[in-house]
Specification:
Helix content is 13%, strand content 31%. By secondary structure, it is α+β, with helices and mostly antiparallel strands. It has one domain (28-103): Nucleic acid-binding proteins (OB fold (Dihydrolipoamide Acetyltransferase, E2P)), CATH 2.40.50.
């Protein structure tokens, strides 16, 4: 019986296995758009330059705010508001390997 590897962090794959990156892509039917954070405004607000060319002031909902940190130059998914196109909500933040995958597949 093998001993557990105490040097490996929880969640890491076994040594020798290929890297696997799971990536959530924007759902066009729900109006989700990729964007890049331009600046932080404070009070859970950020300015995001979206893929459709519009710069939106977006808010970070509490569900996202409590779990992950969003910084400048992060790639995020934005859902524009129906009644005001210059504003929206941030619903997802991509990690570094996920951004590399998006660039490789042509989403960015």
């Amino acid at each position: 019986m093998d001993k557990p590897n105490v040097n490996r962090k929880p969640g890491e794959g076994a040594p020798g296995q290929g890297e696997f990156t799971r990536v959530r892509t924007p759902n066009k039917r729900e109006g989700e758009i990729l964007g890049t954070v331009v600046s932080m405004l404070g009070a859970n607000r950020v300015v995001v330059r979206c893929a459709d060319g519009v710069t939106r002031m977006c808010r970070i909902p509490g569900k996202i705010k409590k779990r992950i940190w969003i910084r400048e130059n992060d790639v995020v998914i934005v859902v524009p508001w129906e009644f005001q196109n210059e504003k929206g909500d941030v619903i997802w933040r991509y990690t570094g390997p996920q951004v590399d995958w998006l660039e490789k597949k042509g989403y960015l």
